[in-house]
Amino acid sequence: MKRYIEAWIKDWMLIFSRELRHIFSDGGVMVIFFLAGLVYPLLYGIIYHNGTVDDMPVAVIDASGSAAGREFIRKLDATRELAVTRSCHAMAEAEKLMQEREVHGIVLIPEDFDLCLAEGRQAHVSTYADMSSFLYYKNLSMGVNNVMLDSMREMSPLPQPVLYEASMPYNRTFSYTLFFLSAVLLIVIQQTMFYGISMLTGTMREENRSFAVLSDTLKGRGISRTVMGRGAAYWLLYMAIGIYVAVIVPAVVGLPRNCSFGSIIVLLLFYVTACTVFSFTFSSFVRHRETVFVLFLFMSPVCLFLTGFAWPQSNFPRVWEAFSWIFPSTFAVRAFINMNTAGASLGMAGSQIAALSVQIIVYYFLSCTAVFIELLPSRSLSSARQTGLSAATGSSASNCRKWRIFFR
What we know:
Blueprint: H1 2-24, H2 27-47, E1 56-62, H3 67-78, E2 82-88, H4 91-99, E3 105-109, H5 113-118, E4 126-129, H6 134-155, H7 176-206, H8 223-253, H9 261-283, H10 291-306, H11 318-324, H12 328-341, H13 350-384, H14 389-393, H15 395-404
Parallel strand pairs: 1-2, 1-3
Antiparallel strand pairs: 3-4
Helix pairs in contact: 1-8, 2-7, 2-8, 7-8, 7-9, 7-10, 7-12, 8-9, 9-12, 9-13, 12-13
């Protein structure tokens, strides 16, 4: 037993060091791992650092010319979101201002606005937003809705049976940075690891080498230690990158951290492990180095939206919900947002941690299977050179040896 353990550790170290040499000898992989993995999160944080737009200039058309219309405009100008910079007499004038980018929204108060309020009928206010940015639409909608709610409360002659008060403890300013960046940060870990491993796999196959070549000391055995040895190289690198992405970058760009450092480390332990075996499994299908760039353009937006950060998970079609289970980022991002933004405990993220654990187990065995299949041609060639000894040993023993290599 002692001999076996010593041999196992020696083989593991040999495979681990060999994989590190492959990583640091490939310039493209180094760019993806260290330049993209370290710069992209910080770059996103800098670009989206100002996640709110205050005092967005809008034009107002007050066709009513009433005191109620003027009060509505005054309240609009007093909101944090909007600043009434232009007062227009016609829609054509306001549209021209928007085309010239002097305003980013238009508010139209109709002629019967004061009359409708006086008669207790429903009054309408029309808004037109500059859709070149989501933030413009968000500001115009929030500003006008807040003024309308406030006006309704003041105008109602009846006491309100239920008093309401807006409370937004996790994102008080509706910052796009907090909304978007929390999801992007963990996506970067999965995507850069997968693309780097896939690029290395494609390069090996183009050079008639194999990612599954075992060490000579293993003599065709030890698929498990081969996968673990290779995985340890990526796991070690990406635990460091993960701490940088999930802890240091949020602190630099001012994202709140509502959970402990230890909770984030526990999440990263599961997430990085799942990303490693996930990348091993699907990179085995890559035959050419250039395939990675096609995958990058196609898969990154898909993985981002499947996390549910922008669209409610409950509204996902069942097909897309099932498809999202393929990616570790789906569960890790949800857990990270709940913990880091909303202050959930590690126990509250237990369902996401459990899902990552299932992925680790499934993708580990799929990674071993990929290595086994990759080695089949060489095994067939080796078997053909033998003189018929395999027939004497019996088929059952042969099958038993084939599967035993997963655990040696």
